[in-house]
Amino acid sequence: MKQGSFWRNGYHRTLIGVIFTLIYLFPVYWMIATSFKSAGEIFDIPPKLIPIPPHFGAYSSEVLHNPELIDVFVNSVVISLGTMILTLVLAVPGTYGLARLKLRGGGMILLLLLISQLLPSIVIAGPLFVTFNRIGLLNSYWGLILADTTITLPFAVIILRPFFLAVPGDLEAAARVDGCSQFGVLWRIAIPYVRPGIITVAALSFLMTWGEFVFALSLNTRDHQPITIALNTFIGQYGTFWNNLMAVSTVAALPIILIFASLQRFIIGGLTTGAVKE
Predict the structure, then answer these.
(1) Do residues 36 and 50 touch, judged by C-beta distance below 8 A?
(2) What is the 8-class DSSP label of residue 70?
(3) Would you tell me how many other CB atoms lie within 10 Å of the CB of residue 251?
(4) Under a CB-based contact definition with an 8 Å cutoff, are residues 151 and 196 in contact?
(5) pLDDT over 90, % of the chain
(6) Lowest mean pLDDT among 43-47, 52-56, 78-82, 202-206
(7) Is pLDDT larger for residue 231 or for residue 78?
(8) What are phi and psi of 206, to 5 degrees?
(9) In the chain, where are the structural domains located?
């Protein structure tokens, strides 16, 4: 291949993309590789890039024969699904109202939602702890679901708004002529039209909640702890069980990888639409 054709055909862009992809994926590979190492091999110098032969002790003790992992895994599924559903229930009609109806203070609401995205979780955790303690929502699924929704809901509204703005006004007008109420227009016209955006928000809400740590640590006990808190137990005062931690981390990452791999078309398309369309 001639050097001129290499640059002219854009192969250099492909090469750069492959290099950046490998850099970003290397921590994931190192996590998986470390999970197949013994405790002694982790500190080998130089480190072993490929664990040969692989050791399955961490998976045997911490995954296959660890009933607590199933409990925390179920807790994460319940909390993530609950947050996803609550986010959609609140975000879809709320965003439709902000995008399609002439509401007083709509611009201020959007500004507040944007500002709320700048607040770190630890700033919100304190007031939520005091409030949930008074109303009896500490150490419960509902407490974590509501807390996580404070993070996912503003994000969902910001992502969904461009989709609702793109709904043709003629379709809504035709639906009203046929006798649809405002809710009927939302249910029969708007929601089917913005289905890709709803899938995007559902997937990202689930993923954001799955990896949440601050609320799970500050608003919860061991009874309802998600898998992110279980990972923290491998970090002790006098050392870290790296192979066990990486084995459980690999299992915890599987739902994220599967969801993103199966819905990447919607997720990438939804984020791109939300970025350029107004």
Answers:
(1) no
(2) H
(3) 16
(4) no
(5) 33
(6) 43-47
(7) 78
(8) -65, -45
(9) 67-276
Q: Which residues pair with 235 in a beta bridge?
A: 240
pTM of the model: 0.85
Alpha-carbon Rg for the chain in angstroms: 23
Both structure tokens of 2: 């001639």
**Which token pair is 191?**
């929601």
| Closest C-alpha to 143, from 201, 81, 224, 70 | 224
Cα dist. 15→5, 6, 191 in Å?
A: 14, 10, 41
Structure tokens at 204: 């990202």
CB-count burial class (<10 Å; 0-12, 13-18, 19+) for 217: middle
Distance CA 95, CA 119 (A): 21
Query: According to the model, what pLDDT value does residue 278 have?
Result: 46
pLDDT of residue 271: 65
Spatial separation of the C-alpha atoms in residues 155 and 91, rounded to whole Å:
9
The yes/no answer on whether domain 67-276 falls in CATH 1.10.3720.10 is: yes
Residues 24-36: pLDDT tens digits? 999 999 999 999 9
Residue with tokens 């249910």: 187
Residue 240 main-chain phi, psi, to 5 deg: -125, 130
